Each structure stands twice: as C-alpha cells, then as structure tokens.
Amino acid sequence: MNLPSSPLQIQVFLKLKPRNYNEINEPKLTFGSEGNDNGQLKRPLGITIDSNDNIFVCDTYNNRIQIFDSNGKFISTFGSRGNGNGQLQLSFGIAVNSKGNVIISDTRNHRIQIFDSEGNFISKFGSYGDENGQFYSPMGICTDIDDNILVCDRGNYRVQIFDSEGKYISQFKANQPIGVTITILKKSLFVE
C-alpha cells in the first residue's frame, strides 16, 4: 500500500492473520504482581527491551516506568504522577532508540517524553490539540532504523512521524490507532 504522505518505504497490514493461542503452552518468563511496590505493577500497558535485554514496562496506573533484567528481576523505576518534566499521567507506549534513550507516550498529558537509559529526563515534545506535532491521547510508539519516532495519535485518527529530537516530519491517517511497530528486516509497518 502506498502512503503518499509518508517519507518511509513501507507496507501496511491492517489485518494480521489470527493468532492461534492454543499453541501457547507455558510462558517463558513471568514476573511482577499487582501493587505499587518496586517490581509490582498496576495495569502495565507498554513494554520494550533495550540492547542489554533489560525490560522496560509502562506501569500505567502507578504513573512510572519500571526496569527489569532479562530474568524479570527488578532493577529500578523512574517517573511519578504529574505533568512536570519526568512526570507521567497514564503512560501507554514505550520504545528505546539506538542511543538507548527511552521514549514514552505520556497519554493524559498529550505529549512524548524522552529519558536516558537510567530514567533521567532529557526532553519532551507535543501538547494537546490537532495541529501537526500536537496530540489527543498518544498511545503506541516506536522508532525506526533512523531513530525517527512514530506515534499513534489515537484521538486525532493518525500516526505522526518525528525526528529523534521531536521535530515533526509527516503523518498518515489511521482509525484510532493504539499500536505501531516497524519490522526492520522486512521494512514493514504494522498499525493496529
């Protein structure tokens, strides 16, 4: 499918073949429990891994990000409830770029925040609205091979594309998108 407003060479698959969950016997790894202590989660929605196989989880209802090692052992946490720099309100999407920076869709604050791998605030972009670079409940997020940031702008029915610093590049329409990913090997884009 050709998307004239996209600077990327992509294929979009709106309907994937149904998954056969009957083939799943046991999980490879299970960690966490419900709560608000370190290692506990309340409504985890976004998850990603970095180049060291550390697992970053959007602990959405606790308004923080938790970091676990590849065995599910708690490492650290960052973020708190609020609308200041480094604070979150219902984080949904999370991605790690090639520099190890953590990019988070701060859904209720209608913005994107960027942190270093230790959870220190670097920058933010976006605000509430429907203009280029503005958001209405940003959700799923991913980065491409050039560290461009793709954001599911759910309430505005689109996916917006930004450079690694948060400068607006382009957008394409999507019907209330909540998830986006890029398969680098196949150069495909999936929007759900």
Fill in the keyword field for this structure:
mainly beta; Neuraminidase; 192 residues
Fold and architecture overview:
The chain is globular. The chain has about 190 residues and is mainly β. The chain is about 0% helix and about 40% strand. It has one domain: 6 Propeller (Neuraminidase), CATH 2.120.10.30. It starts with about 30 loop residues before the first strand and ends with a strand. The chain has strands spanning about 35, 40, 45-50, 55-60, 65-70, 75-80, 80, 85-90, 90-95, 100-105, 110-115, 120-125, 140-145, 150-155, 160, 170-175, 180-185, 190. The protein is built from no helices and 18 strands. The strands form six sheets. The protein has a four-stranded antiparallel beta sheet, with no helix packed on it. Strands 9-10-11-12 form a four-stranded antiparallel beta sheet, with no helix packed on it.
Main sheet: which strands, in order across? 3-4-5-6
Residue stretches low in confidence (pLDDT < 50, at least 5 long) are none
CATH architecture: 6 Propeller
Provide a count of the helices: 0
Terminal Cα separation, in Å?
Answer: 15 Å
Assigned CATH class: Mainly Beta
CATH-defined topology: Neuraminidase
Beta-strand share of residues: 35-45%
Extended strand count: 18
Per-chain topology:
Blueprint: E1 33-34, E2 40-41, E3 44-49, E4 55-59, E5 64-68, E6 74-78, E7 80-81, E8 87-88, E9 91-96, E10 102-106, E11 111-115, E12 121-125, E13 138-143, E14 149-153, E15 158-162, E16 168-173, E17 180-183, E18 188-191
Parallel strand pairs: 1-2, 7-8
Antiparallel strand pairs: 3-4, 4-5, 5-6, 9-10, 10-11, 11-12, 13-14, 14-15, 15-16, 17-18
